[in-house]
Amino acid sequence: MTAAEAEAQQRRWRALVDERLPAAAAAHPDWPVSRNHCFARILLDNACGGPWRESVAPPAWANMPPERLDLALSLGEAVLAGRQDLAVLNHRSLVWRRKLRLPPAPLSLPGEDFSLRRWQLADDEPFAALCADPEVMRFFPAPKTARESQTEARALARRFDEDGFGPWVVETAEGFSGFVGCWRPSRPLPLGPLIGQETGLVEIGWRLAWPAWGRGFAVRGARLALADVFSRCALTEVVAYTADLNAPSRRVMERLGMSEVGGFDHPGLPEGHGLRPHRLYRLAAADFMAADATAANVLAGDPA
Ligand SMILES: CC(C)(COP(=O)(O)OP(=O)(O)OC[C@H]1O[C@@H](n2cnc3c(N)ncnc32)[C@H](O)[C@@H]1OP(=O)(O)O)[C@@H](O)C(=O)NCCC(=O)NCCS
């Protein structure tokens, strides 16, 4: 970017936060802020994925890397065009700045013909049946015993208390149908060379009973879960990975708009094991939220 282009970009930024957004606020009593420095805080934080002062010296308009200022500008333009919910962006900024406590996880999230809900002890039996099914577990090293499944169910349910989010039970007309949702990986994975980061990751995953396959529960359930973690929990990115061979799971990742980043060998499987080669995908909150209006609805306080 030439010096003249950088200057033009900075002028656009100042016009956006000093004039256009405050002027538009008069017509938007629902907006959580109306002053120029608040608009700047919200847009800059969201462009940086955290409080902007942690990565940029003030004044931000002069020191922000041009590509990030560009992202802040496009977020602001999207707010003006009604394509981006300012309340959601503000919520994320305040959570990052610890001005707002993370609202507790709801008890359920409604879908059209299914819901995501928290775990119950009564799920042990159908979950054990699901994890003992060789068809469901064909891309895992082995099916699980009832005891292993019960331990896993307890650990999955506890995630909501530990992290504020977790894998939800998928409840369909047939009752318990598996799970979909986000969690922090419990083992370190060799992802540094692929995404430059090995800690602080959040992954999304799914496991459904076979009668629930092909009905969109994985994709639609994942969208609900993503809207929740990206809005209520203010996460900036999630990753997903699966065995190279697991085409159905990779298809879900692709339908969610996740980008394939590359391959790695799963450290939990021995050299030469057919399931050891894995593919990694990632999804940025900004990309998801731009494409999914559900994020705003989840934050607006859908049911507990
Ligand atoms: C991976 C897994 C969850 C994918 O399930 P799935 O049934 O293929 O995924 P969905 O439920 O989202 O279904 C998607 C399909 O349903 C279709 N569908 C039907 N009704 C739909 C609706 N109302 N909305 C959206 N999609 C719908 C979609 O078109 C899509 O088909 P397509 O991929 O041919 O386009 C499932 O195969 C599974 O549980 N496997 C075993 C466990 C496992 O491997 N987990 C992953 C470990 S990493």
Description:
The chain is an alpha+beta fold. It has two domains: 3-96, no CATH class; 108-299, Gcn5-related N-acetyltransferase (GNAT) (Aminopeptidase), CATH 3.40.630. It has twelve helices and eight strands. The protein has helices at 3-25, 36-48, 60-63, 66-80, 86-96, 124-132, 146-163, 192-195, 217-231, 247-255, 285-291, 294-299, and strands spanning 108-110, 115-117, 167-172, 175-183, 203-208, 237-243, 259-265, 277-284. The strands form two sheets. Strands 1-2-3-4-5 form a five-stranded antiparallel β-sheet, sandwiched between helices. A three-stranded antiparallel β-sheet has the order 6-8-7. Strand 1 (108-110) and strand 2 (115-117) form a beta hairpin. Helix 2 crosses helix 4, helix 2 (36-48) packs across helix 5 and helix 6 (124-132) crosses helix 7. The protein is elongated and about 65 Å long. The N and C termini lie far apart (48 Å). 36% of the residues are buried. The model is unreliable at 299-304 (pLDDT under 50). It binds coenzyme A (COA). Coenzyme A binds at residues 136, 139, 205-208, 213-220, 242, 246, 248-249, 251-252. Residues 116-258 form the N-acetyltransferase domain. Pfam families: Acetyltransf_3 (PF13302). Keywords: Transferase. GO terms for molecular function: acyltransferase activity, transferring groups other than amino-acyl groups. InterPro entries: Acyl_CoA_acyltransferase, GNAT_dom, N-acetyltransferase.
